[in-house]
Structure formats: structure tokens, C-alpha cells
Design brief:
Helices cover 23% and strands 25% of the residues. The protein is an alpha+beta fold. The chain starts with a helix and ends with a helix. The chain has one domain: Aminopeptidase. The chain has a four-stranded antiparallel sheet, covered by helices on one side. The protein is globular. A hairpin with a 5-residue loop joins strand 1 and strand 2.
């Protein structure tokens, strides 16, 4: 995943992370501090995208979400042969795969 995140972080244009972020720091920020992390792969199995989902706050505001995503330069619409589908399209033959999920803060407290 670092190969996907590194150029975006280094550019310093879209995420608030220090452009000098290390691979370990990116792993912590993107994967380990998230509620769920998903990845997208192309038909050859190459990682072409990822997103995270996490609570925006704790306790009574935990239902408000924060998300971020990165798409590989070559897989962005208009720049690749990757087939992008909307929610109205038929399901892709290879669904996005979770790489990390955590119990919700409210479920963990119960």
C-alpha cells in the first residue's frame, strides 16, 4: 500500500500528513487508526486504490464519519483501462476487499 500512498503524501497537496511521512507512520495513520480500510485491485491483482473510514469523533458523535481515499495515478478515470462502476452498475467481478476492520466504538463498549 505504501507504493500507492507515498506519492500522494510526498506531493503535499491533498492530505494533511507531513510530506516526509515514513512508511510506518503512513501505516499507522491510514490503516491502524481507521475503523475500516478497503483496497481496490485491477483484474491482474494490482492495487489501484484504497480508502479508509473512521469515526469523526468519539461517544455521541461517533456516528459521524470521516473518510479518505487514494487512487493510483494510472487508474484514475480517463487515464487507464480500469473499469469504474457507480452504485447503479452491476457488481464488479472482483469486489473491493477489506484489509482492516475494527469493531465500532459503541459495539466495543457494550
Amino acid at each position: 500500500m505504501w507504493a500507492l500512498l507515498e506519492p500522494v503524501c510526498r506531493a503535499g497537496e491533498t492530505f494533511p500528513h507531513d510530506p516526509a511521512i515514513s512508511e510506518a507512520e503512513a501505516q499507522l495513520a491510514w490503516v491502524e487508526q481507521s475503523q475500516a480500510v478497503m483496497v481496490a485491485v485491477d483484474p491482474a491483482g494490482t492495487l489501484v486504490g484504497t480508502f479508509y473510514l473512521r469515526p469523526n469523533s468519539l461517544a455521541l458523535a461517533a456516528h459521524v464519519a470521516n473518510a479518505g481515499y487514494v487512487v493510483a495515478e494510472g487508474a484514475r478515470p480517463g487515464r487507464s483501462t480500469v473499469s469504474w462502476r457507480s452504485s447503479a452498475s452491476p457488481a464488479p467481478s472482483r469486489p473491493m476487499a477489506p484489509i482492516c476492520t475494527s469493531p465500532s466504538p459503541t459495539a466495543a463498549a457494550q
